[in-house]
Amino acid sequence: MTPVFLFLLFLSLTAFPPVNLLFEERCLFLCCSAAGGLVHGDVMMSRNRNADPCTAKGCKWPKTGPYVLVPVRFSDSYNKEQKNIIIRSLLTFHRPTCIRFVWWHGQQDYLHFVPKSGCWSYVGRSGGEQEVSLQKSGCLLKGTVQHEILHALGFHHEQTRSDRDQYIKILYENIWEGQQDKRNFDKVMTNNLGTPYDFDSVMHYGKYAFSKNGQPTIVAKSDPYLSFGSAAQMSANDFVRLNKLYECSE
């Protein structure tokens, strides 16, 4: 392991008690609604392009040799324990993928973790300082951090993928009345990388997301009673498609 990667490991081993990393669905679908300029619930509109699928190299983070180096920095508003929660979540990408998070030392493009209103991110590399909002209350959870990082690496929500109509049905009559709320379920022409639809993905909405009446807004066509959208961490398929997008060696 080279020194450039050691900083995260060092900070992750500082003496903090174990944290509860249970995923809370509502943090992605309620807290984030306070932030303006969002589509699909927690995706910030890019300054340089609309929310297109990450199929072009321009929105991917570049490779340096076998690794994809993604510089990161943290707002001083986070305390040490809060920073370590984020760091431990970032470390989950290191062993199974070629993504490597490194400290920002003046690199042009980097992720800046900030505790703004809600949990949200841009999709793919947008250039320059790229904020990832992880509100201190409700967003500092392993699954939530992974979710927003996957957005930053180029991924949309699972239920917006281009072939979703084969697997799920959107019940628009149960969605909040606002036009923006219904747009949260817009389909995107995604690059699915030859991977199957994944109800266990950390990128999948829950079946009651943005419900106005307590009834489901998304149901699985194979089983209307199937529960989904409460993943506490990335699924095996999430890692597979990340490795495919960035052409990580097996």
* CATH architectural label of the largest domain: 3-Layer(aba) Sandwich
N- to C-terminal separation?
18 Å
Helix content: 10-25%
Uncertain segments? 1-36, 47-52
The H/E string reads HHEEEEHEEEEHEHEH
Helical run tally: 6
- Bulk shape: globular
Query: How many β-strand runs?
Result: 10
Radius of gyration: 17 Å
Integer tally of domains: 2
What integer is the average pLDDT?
82
Strand content: 15-25%
CATH topology of the largest domain: Collagenase (Catalytic Domain)
Overall CATH class of the largest domain:
Alpha Beta
TL;DR?
The protein has six helices and ten strands; from the N terminus they run H-H-E-E-E-E-H-E-E-E-E-H-E-H-E-H. The chain has 250 residues and is an alpha/beta fold.
Question: Would you kindly provide a written description of the structure presented here, covering whatever features stand out?
Answer:
The protein has helices at residues 3-12, 26-29, 80-91, 142-153, 179-183, 236-245; strands spanning 38-39, 43-44, 63-64, 67-74, 99-103, 110-114, 119-121, 129-134, 168-170, 218-220. The chain folds into two domains: 38-46 and 53-153, Collagenase (Catalytic Domain) (3-Layer(aba) Sandwich); 158-246, Collagenase (Catalytic Domain). Residues 1-36 and 47-52 have low confidence and may be disordered. 21% of the residues lie in helices and 16% in strands. Strands 3, 4, 5, 6, 7 and 8 form a six-stranded mixed beta sheet that branches. A two-stranded antiparallel sheet has the order 1-2. Strands 9-10 form a two-stranded antiparallel ribbon. Helix 1 packs across helix 3 (80-91) and helix 3 crosses helix 4. Strand 7 and strand 8 form a beta hairpin. The chain is built from six helices and ten strands; from the N terminus they run H-H-E-E-E-E-H-E-E-E-E-H-E-H-E-H. The chain has 250 residues and is α/β, with parallel strands linked by helices.
